[in-house]
Amino acid sequence: MTWETIPQLALSTADRFGDAEAVVDGELRWSSNELVDRIRRAAGSFAESGIGPGDRVAVWAPNSAEWIVAALGLMTAGGVLVPVNTRFKTEEAADVIRRSGAKALLVQKGFLGADYPAPPGVPVYDLKSDFLTGGAPFEREVAGTDIADIIYTSGTTGRPKGVMMNHAQTLRLYSEWCDLADLRHGDRYLMVNPFFHTFGLKAGIVAALVRGATMLPVPVFDVDRVIELVATERITMLPGPPTLYHSLLEDRGTRDISSLRAAVTGAADIPVDLIRRIREELPFRSIMTGYGLTEAGTATASRPGDTFEQIATTAGSACDGIELRIADDSEVLIRGYSVMQGYLDDPEASAAAVDTDGWLHTGDLGTLDEGGRLKVIGRKKDMYIVGGFNAYPAEIEGFLLEHPAVAQAAVIGVPDDRMGQVGRAFVVARTEIGEADLIAWARERMAGYKVPRSIVFLDRLPLNATGKVMKDQLR
Description:
The chain is of the alpha/beta class. The protein contains 14 helices and 25 strands. α2 (about 30-50) packs across α3 (about 65-75) and α8 packs across α9. It is globular.
């Protein structure tokens, strides 16, 4: 079955799945029929409050059943969703909401004790109030080429930019994602990835609607709570960062997680042994890794039959209809239907990101193996030059993670009078190890220019809400 718009997909779930469980959130349990009724009523509330075709509405709240209804109800009313990062401080959120031109803001009052940074004259609605349920059932005509959402980049470097995507792009890409990730009808999908991020919204909500999977939103990531939910709700689908699977391995045997079937993860470099252990020591039957970015969604994915090493050390091959190319400076370029419609109100940045031939310049550095699998070796902005040699932090971090005492590592370039720049590693240790010992160990395993000259031990690395290390804070 094909749909032209996300509202078409969402509203079709009542006919396709009826009384099957669609959303579970604490005590709340909705069937597909109930979810669709709530979406239509939310659309009515938006329309009655003056939200018209193409009007933008921001949602600044953690994952919840009401978040799902708000997003789908807004799109059904013809509006454009602007999800706002829950890790943002009030000033950061206010900047994104203002620049998005949002006509309304939805929040979960009391969450994190934050203020609600709506510009003057912009109404603020509580997701948990009766706003979403008070409207008369409504649906507005929407086209596949209409903008569906504007997701702001995670802001690890520079000011976040609003990435515009239309309905048709999302539906095509995340229908394919369901096959690649082995998401099936009847799966119970624990949604750890935040809905304000492409993964949570599209590989999460949209993919679940495509397949008819039960959505179980997790508002705040807490490993113990996640494992408890896996056991009590018989979760089958559990995407998440590598740290999630480390935690499952450590907890192994204490609770019944035998229902788990499909894992999806991704990072610049995942230890091969972690992928092997996920497959051999946990119940998962399929593991997918991939590479994506806000500006193009999921661009590559591993395939059934890939080896542990290929799954761990590459991000798989290009999705259907997407071209990959490595530029002369090793930057990863992407072209195809999934590339964004541009940055909101920023034609200069849009032109800098997507060239006249349609290639998106990702800012990531990579290589392609003989099978066309992408290996991401770092960020273009992160690369530093040691005495004339290019040093790629992701590669060096991968080496450091092989040391049994190293749990996490992040590497940056710092100024050096003699070499221009040298590496500095920030390490979260599992067991005690000294700086000199770790540097000596590194010297035996990598070229001299790659070896960090200094190591700073931390209790934790600064991460944004999508699990990326915020290297600007390390600097």
